[in-house]
Design brief:
The structure is a single chain. Helices cover 76% and strands 0% of the residues. The N and C termini lie far apart (82 Å). It is globular, with a radius of gyration of 25 Å. The chain is an all-alpha fold. InterPro entries: MFS, MFS_dom, MFS_trans_sf. It is a multi-pass membrane protein. Keywords: Membrane, Transmembrane, Transmembrane helix, Transport.
Length: 559
């Protein structure tokens, strides 16, 4: 009997279980709906942690800085592993990686909910929970692109955006609601465990495999660039840790040493893949010389085989067969740089606005966490409304560039409007925050709808997970940066109704923090000026083709 027999038996049982429900009874819309319900967990766990922080402080009798690591640990691993799981999903199947990530996440959600004696254990569980969550976002996007095409894909993207954005508001409200009960933060994590467990069971029996395109390469996980993966993960971890630690002060070795080291590791990794390995492959006329979608066998070189199991022979074979994380095709997407910067600025604006407003409601207006969460509901409602009202025909009519420019200008205007808030003014919430948040949500939604339609439509199916991972990694890094900047500007806050001097000092800090939201909106506008409109280009090509056909027909009639 093979030493791997027990493991093989377990794998066989799992695979047979996934075949219990016949394929003819499975529906891609049902599967996608379940996957979208599971995808809410990413933002539920982010926003929920914002409003359960006060409950965690009370339970563990700790300060805000320590309690905030419950959110930071999750964001840390989420941001570091997204690209990797996106790439693995492209190789192993987005549906498989999504399901495994969901199961992994449900286990650690349960352990997070169970009362712990030390907050350190809870922070570790949250970090592990974030690893599972990192498998959901890129592979959820990839499933949408693989399951649907044309008008169906537009509808799928609309649902995806509604899910991702609405879950932020829902998470904040649920976290605040549970914080006001006797069960506290634990109730929130029991809820996320229940949701992830139910979705994972349903997907186990009902999931529809993502089919590989005909002629597409069939790489294996063992061929991945593991040195590159290690450098990528460690580099991202160091960058996000440095940004998180900077929330207290930037003048510490944890920031000014760790941050550059992380950036250097990412630079080395990028050079190693895009220059060294790629050049080596091309020099030997191997796989990288052909289009990415051609099916080629693994390299078998007689000279290499003769080297046996020597280290040099192993390294040579590995360099020829390695599956790069960052394929060149991923960087040929139209408007990649402006969209990456735009996404980063939108995430920064979104996160800073939420964090500032939640804390403003609690420390300046002395609201409960639940009421603070309720007051930001116009934001996610605007996001959802924008997704429901959006049609791709709108973008085609006025142009992608114009749509994004309008979105950025509205973002600037609303950020300025919200910054005029003043707790001393009568009905200030209704004047400066209620309508402005709703419009801000619509403006942010416009970016997400346009960017997702553009990126998904122009990305090959076998790169959907990787590209989604790249964009979401940038988003998570700027979420961490936003958290650090807001915490640095606001500093330690006190909940007081009698000390006017403290209230005024904190009020000025909040106003300074609002300037960061305005700055991010301005940067967003500047980069949207660089967008090249693919719709206009297609129309020009179409018109040119029609004119050419007309001239040809006219010449034919004359002759």
């Amino acid at each position: 009997m093979s030493q791997y027999a027990p493991f093989e038996s377990v794998v066989s049982i799992i695979r047979n279980g996934m075949k219990v429900v016949p394929t003819r009874y499975r529906n891609k819309r049902v599967v996608y709906g379940i996957a979208m319900a599971a995808l809410t967990l990413d933002n539920l766990n982010v926003a929920g942690a914002m409003t359960t922080t006060f409950s965690i402080q009370e339970v563990f009798d700790t300060d805000y800085s320590t309690a905030s690591w419950v959110l930071s640990a999750y964001a840390l691993t989420l941001g570091a592993f997204i690209i990797i799981f996106g790439k693995i999903g492209d190789i192993w199947g987005a549906h498989n990686v999504f399901l495994l990530g969901l199961i992994f996440m449900s286990v650690w959600s349960l352990l997070t909910a169970i009362p712990q004696k030390s907050i350190i254990a809870m922070i570790i569980f949250r970090a592990l929970q974030g690893i599972g969550a990192a498998a959901l976002l890129p592979n959820g996007y990839s499933m949408a692109a693989n399951y649907f095409q044309g008008p169906e894909l537009e509808q799928a993207i609309r649902i995806l955006v509604i899910v991702v954005t609405a879950s932020m508001g829902l998470g904040a409200v649920l976290g605040g609601a549970f914080s006001c009960t006797k069960v506290g933060y634990m109730g929130f994590f029991y809820f996320t465990f229940a949701l992830s467990f139910v979705c994972s069971v349903l997907l186990y029996f009902l999931s529809i495999p993502v089919k590989r395109a005909e002629g597409q390469r069939n790489p294996m996980v063992r061929d991945l660039d593991f040195p590159g993966i290690i450098m990528l993960v460690i580099g991202l971890l160091l960058i996000i840790i440095a940004l998180t630690e900077s929330s207290m002060t930037w003048k510490t070795a944890k920031v000014y040493i760790i941050l550059p080291v992380g950036c250097i590791l990412l630079a080395i990794m990028f050079w190693f893949e895009t220059y060294f390995l790629t050049r080596y492959k091309r020099k030997h006329n191997r796989n990288e010389c052909v289009p990415h979608n051609m099916q080629l066998p693994r390299q078998q070189d007689p000279d290499l085989e003769n080297q046996g199991k020597s280290i040099s022979g192993f390294l040579t074979r590995w360099m020829l067969n390695v599956e790069l994380i960052f394929l060149a095709e991923a960087f040929k997407i139209p408007n990649l740089i402006p969209l990456l910067v735009g996404l980063s600025m939108v995430y920064f604006n979104f996160t800073t606005s939420l964090m500032i407003l939640i804390q403003y409601h609690i420390y300046e207006e002395l609201n409960t966490p639940l009421m603070a969460a309720v007051k930001i509901l116009p934001f996610p409602v605007g996001l959802v409304s924008g997704a429901m009202m959006y049609r791709e025909s709108q973008t085609k009519k006025i142009g992608m560039r114009n749509m994004l420019l309008i979105s950025s200008l509205v973002l600037v205007a609303c950020s300025v409007w919200i910054s005029r808030t003043d707790y001393r003014a009568r009905n200030d919430y209704w004047k400066t925050r209620f309508i402005s948040q709703y419009i801000l949500g619509i403006a942010i939604n416009r970016f997400f709808m346009v960017y997702l339609n553009c990126v998904m439509a122009s990305t090959p199916l076998n790169l959907q997970g990787l590209v989604a991972g790249i964009f979401n990694t940038f988003g998570q890094i700027f979420v961490a940066l936003a958290s650090a900047v807001v915490a640095t500007i606001l500093g330690l806050l006190e909940e007081t109704s009698s000390n006017y001097k403290i209230l005024q000092t904190q009020y000025h800090r909040f106003h300074n923090a609002f300037y960061t939201t305005i700055a991010s909106a301005v940067v967003y506008f500047i980069f949207m000026l660089m967008i090249k409109d693919p719709y206009r280009k297609k129309e020009a090509v179409k018109e040119k083709s029609e004119v050419s056909v007309a001239l040809t027909e006219a010449k034919g009639m004359k002759s």
